[in-house]
Design a protein that fits this description.
heterodimer; A: alpha/beta; B: mainly alpha; about 70% helix; Glycosylphosphatidylinositol anchor attachment 1 (chain A); transmembrane (chain A)
């Protein structure tokens, strides 16, 4: 049971940590960026740990559309680097007295080596206090790795490049640094250069302290858990941190939420309705107690929306995301004090509390024989202590996409059934033949529609890859790049369309069934795409399904609606046009952005920047957008504009 | 670990060692696969030509050629060759440097030889294909039928009826009915025994040849018994349980050890059980029978790959005219596309991301097997319907 052991972090350790922190803060002007690593090295050596320095270069954003599908690669070192641009991670390792060195727990404290802030120093102090405790405890059975990450190129880069070298055992960056070692890094002892390994990582904790104050009466702990492509760490890790923080140290634990949702009137009234229904149900049968108060409902919804949004984006919310690529459970714990000024005078207290919290977590993980038991990776958070599991949210998604195969099948059977009549007419006109209709590939007619769908998907693959070339254009603003992208896409579509020629051969041309078959194949392709995406990144698929399913299902040629000219047809046509308009990825982006941040400072180029960030983070959402959403949208337009 | 034929290894092995500067390692080997696939496609095309002429002759003999002339006849050989070459599965096997293109080549070679009546070629293809992957052994039945009778025909009973009717008409009315030369007439009586005997003679020659070559090449490594154990034994006892697209690995990973032998027998007899009934029912269409056998064995074999699917899908396209009214074609197409996309994702989820488990991946393997079953059932059904329709047409024209 987590937290059953008495915390061992004593006042001495905390004072050590505080001294360490003050010592770091003394280096306010740094020339080479080597002072802090050297100091940490000296301290860890005193404690009896092992140290090495890990040098790395920033990774540049590269276009890697299929990266999410592959493992993390060894990375390439850019040609034009300078020695001063190296980031230097300091890695300290304590070998467990009772372990066999096969497993490790990682603590990460990012700091900016060019300009260290008080908050960063405090987080390093916490880690050091813990480190000095863990260096002498007897219960340790997993090695402890402390990574003081140099965040001058970003926190994520520091952690990711260290992890890459840890797992590939290639020392790519070090090779290049040998040249540099001759110049300004010569003072480094060579023994610190050899890369030190502990075992496989059981869990990783990123400790951060911020200056931002909370508006609550307690110190707050914010948990960031989303890694790339909506992957989550094992739920048990979040549970342990939450349990220990709330019950052990009296923190207020938060996860991210979308603040603008908290004051939305319709959400509140929905909450009131549910509360009322819950009360009603409770009065009928006391066992039905599903009602929750309005405020809680709104709060949970805002958290859920944020969780869904962050997972759907596929961009990690912190340096912990790098760990997930190596199947290591990791979270970022961000501590924010009551008042922003209190960082100075309450640092001892914060050190003690956070240190004890992390100690408890480390001890819990340390005592595990294997990995976390429950393989609970698929969930959405509604509050730090509550979640929606895959079994629950999949039902909603399944119900959402279930109409797609049904509609595809019914449309398909309609199209094939309506055909024999035409065939019979054809044969009836020939009195000589009293035979049955001979085979004319009636059951293979869908191949022509499939060809059309295939061409559009081929086009979408080209669209996916176009930014790679557009990105090469030097000195152009995002707006121009986006415009070039769109124009090139349209040109390719027109070209491919004319190249592939008329979709249906004249021999079997029956205009009535043509669009039905096209829609059927489109719906089937969309279904496959959505199912695929729901496995890769559920949140994206969920949001995408909300947009695509109505668009696909209502699509009917506008000319047909025009011909019928009833109110129903009119409404259907209007709905179609609205769905198509809203379904365009660029519109979706701007509408969502406007709803969340306001429409004030929005520029056309924002979409390009957003897409760029998606592929820079290897998000599968980008591929989904280009290869599932976009073709479906185009095919729906083709259905709408179908000519009879 | 290589568990294939030592002869193939002596051809391909040196190629894996040669590296061209700045190119991927397996480029030369992939090139071999590409060449094998091209030859394979050409042979499929030639087989399709033979089948099409045979079909035209048969329909003419049955007197149905005028009835069916307004129907579009697809050039099935061309379509089949294109389906084989453009099949994403074929391309994947080339990219991934799989030996299945070579195995497929010999299977198709044997079928081509048999349908063209070139007995030594048929025997050679059959022997090498069986030597490479064991399962093509069952193709001996279609090959014998192909050599004994002619390529695929409508049921032979129809010809017999037609014959009787014609002779009857001749006898009674003494009209000057145009007679076809007897040699052009495929009837039930003509089963060319000598060709089958010749086939077996050639097959034994080739087998002896292959065995001698193998014995020479594995002389230092324990001789032929060891080779049999390492190649066919490895296939039959399912020793390698690493995940593949088949259904056996998971099953044998889970099964208790003392049941293992029993289930090994059950699974392999499963293929053998279906041979005889299918051979009886489809004996007039040996090429189609070969397709059905290949589909079944690719479903139940111990280490299947997508290359096997590529082969039977290519062969299926040979019967595009007969299968024109196959049901569920769209459903099957969607299923194949969906499974072939979902399966790598599930594998990724299980092996790389660790959020899924083996059941996720195995589920797609089972769905894939189900789709293959539906494909086989539906195609056989469509073929039998086609035969029924021809019979109906015959009776109506007679009436």
């Amino acid at each position: 049971m987590p937290g059953s052991a008495r915390p061992m972090l004593s006042n001495d350790d905390v004072s050590e940590g505080e001294r360490f922190m003050n010592q770091i803060l003394r280096f306010d002007t740094m020339s080479t960026g080597m002072e802090i690593p050297e100091m940490i090295t000296a301290h860890i050596m005193d404690l009896g740990g092992e140290v090495n320095h890990h040098k790395f270069l920033p990774q540049f954003n590269r276009f890697h559309p299929l990266h999410f599908f592959l493992g993390p690669d060894a990375g390439t070192v850019p040609e034009n680097y300078s020695c001063s641009s190296y980031g230097i991670n300091t890695v300290g390792i304590i070998r467990a007295p009772r372990g066999d060195g096969k497993e490790a727990i990682v603590l990460v404290t990012p700091y900016n080596s060019l300009k260290i802030t008080r908050a960063e120093a405090l987080s390093m102090g916490i880690a050091y206090a813990l480190f000095s405790l863990l260096a002498r405890v007897t219960w340790l059975s997993k090695d402890i790795v402390w990574l003081a990450g140099d965040s001058r190129h970003g926190e994520y880069t520091a952690v990711a490049s260290w992890l890459r070298d840890y797992h590939t055992a290639s020392f790519g960056d070090l090779k290049h640094s040998e040249i540099c070692a001759a110049s300004n890094l010569s003072e480094m002892k060579t023994m610190h250069n050899s890369f030190r390994h502990a075992g496989t990582m059981a869990a990783a904790l990123v400790i951060k302290v911020t200056n931002r104050s909370t508006e609550f009466e307690k110190d707050a702990l914010t948990i960031y858990a989303e890694a790339s492509n909506g992957q989550m760490p094992n739920l048990d890790l979040i549970n342990i941190v939450n349990y220990l923080a709330v019950h052990g140290q009296g923190y207020r634990v938060k996860v991210q939420k979308i603040w603008s949702l908290l004051n939305v009137w319709w959400l509140k009234s929905l909450g009131q309705l549910i509360e009322m229904l819950g009360k009603l149900a409770g009065s009928l049968n006391p066992q039905w107690n599903f009602g929750i108060p309005v405020s809680e409902y709104v709060e949970c919804t805002a958290t859920l929306a944020s969780s869904l949004y962050n997972q759907a984006l596929g961009v990690p919310t912190g340096p912990h995301g790098a760990f997930r690529d190596y199947q290591v459970d990791a979270i970022t714990m961000e501590i924010s004090p009551k008042f922003s000024s209190s960082l100075n005078n309450r640092q001892y207290e914060i050190l003690l509390h956070v240190g004890r919290l992390v100690e408890g977590v480390v001890r819990s993980v340390n005592n595990l024989l294997e990995k976390f038991h429950q393989s609970f990776f698929l969930y959405l958070l509604t509050s730090p202590s509550r979640f929606v599991s895959v079994g629950v949210y999949m039902i909603a998604f399944a119900l959402l996409v279930a109409p797609l195969p049904l509609v595809a099948a019914s449309l398909f059977s309609d199209a094939t059934k309506s055909n024999p009549d035409a065939e019979k007419d054809k044969y009836a006109s020939k009195p000589a033949s009293t035979l049955q209709p001979a085979p004319t590939f009636t059951s293979w007619k869908w191949l022509y529609a499939a060809k059309q769908v295939l061409v559009v998907h081929l086009w979408s693959a080209i669209v996916t890859l176009l930014p790679y070339f557009v990105d090469q254009i030097p000195d152009s603003s995002p707006t121009t790049k986006l415009s070039i992208w769109i124009v090139l896409s349209i040109i390719t579509l027109l070209f491919l369309d004319s190249f592939s020629g008329s979709s249906f051969p004249s021999t079997i041309r029956s205009r009535d069934t043509e669009w039905i078959l096209l829609k059927s194949v489109t719906v089937a392709a969309t279904f496959i795409g959505l199912c695929l995406m729901s496995v890769i990144n559920f949140a994206t698929a969920e949001i995408g399904a909300l947009l695509l399913v109505p668009m696909c299902l209502t699509a009917v040629p506008l000319r047909l609606d025009n011909k019928v000219n009833t109110l129903r047809a009119l409404i259907r046509g209007a709905c179609n046009v609205i769905f198509i308009f809203v379904g365009f990825p660029v519109t979706v982006f701007f509408v969502l952005k406007g709803a969340l941040e306001g429409f004030d400072n929005m520029r056309f180029g924002d979409f390009w920047n957003w897409a760029e960030s998606l592929w820079a983070w290897n998000s599968a959402t980008y591929i989904y957008m280009c290869m599932v959403h976009l073709p479906c949208w185009v095919l729906c337009i083709q259905t709408l504009l179908h000519r009879f | 670990m290589y568990h294939g034929s030592p002869l193939l290894l002596s051809v391909l092995g040196p190629l894996t060692a040669i590296k061209i500067e700045g190119q991927p390692n397996h480029l030369l080997c992939s090139l071999v696969s590409v060449i094998a696939d091209f030859i394979c496609a050409l042979l499929i095309r030639a087989t399709g030509r033979i089948l099409q002429t045979a079909r035209g002759l048969n329909l003419k003999f049955l007197g149905l050629d005028t009835m069916l002339e307004d129907i579009e006849i697809m050039p099935s050989g061309d379509i089949a060759a294109l389906v084989y070459l453009w099949n994403p599965f074929t391309i994947f096997t080339c990219v991934g440097f799989n030996t299945s293109p070579v195995e497929n080549l010999f299977v198709v070679l044997s079928l081509y030889g048999a349908s063209a009546g070139i007995v030594p070629l048929a025997a050679f293809g059959w022997v090498i294909a069986s030597h490479l992957s064991l399962y093509p052994v069952v193709l001996v039945i279609p090959v014998i039928l192909l050599l004994g009778y002619c390529p695929d025909t409508p049921p032979r009973k129809l010809f017999l009826q037609r014959d009787l009717q014609k002779t009857g008409a001749e006898g009674s009315t003494k009209n000057h009915v145009q007679h076809r030369p007897l040699t052009n007439k495929p009837t039930e009586a003509t089963f060319f025994w000598w060709r089958v005997i010749l086939f077996f003679m050639w097959a034994s020659i080739w087998i002896a040849y292959v065995l001698i070559l193998c014995a020479i090449s594995v002389k230092e490594y324990g001789g032929l018994p060891e080779m049999f154990k390492r190649t066919y034994g490895f296939i039959l006892t399912v020793k390698d349980l690493s995940p593949n697209i088949g259904v056996l690995w998971y099953f044998f990973a889970e099964v208790f050890d003392f049941f293992r032998n029993f289930f090994l027998i059950v699974f392999h007899v499963n293929i053998l059980f279906m041979i005889l009934p299918l051979a009886i029912r489809l004996n007039h269409r040996p090429c189609f029978l070969a397709f059905v056998y290949l589909a079944i064995s690719s479903m139940l074999k111990s280490y299947p790959s997508v290359g096997d699917s590529a082969l039977y899908l290519g062969l299926m396209a040979l019967f595009v005219n007969e299968l024109a009214e196959m049901q569920f074609s769209f459903f099957l197409f969607c299923g194949y596309v969906g499974v072939s996309l979902l399966s790598p994702v599930m594998h990724n989820l299980w092996i790389w991301r660790g959020t899924g488990n083996a059941n996720f991946y195995y589920a797609t393997a089972m769905v894939y097997a189900c789709f293959q079953i539906i494909l086989v059932v539906e195609s056989v059904n469509a073929m039998l319907n086609h035969d029924r329709k021809i019979r109906k047409l015959c009776t109506t024209t007679e009436g």
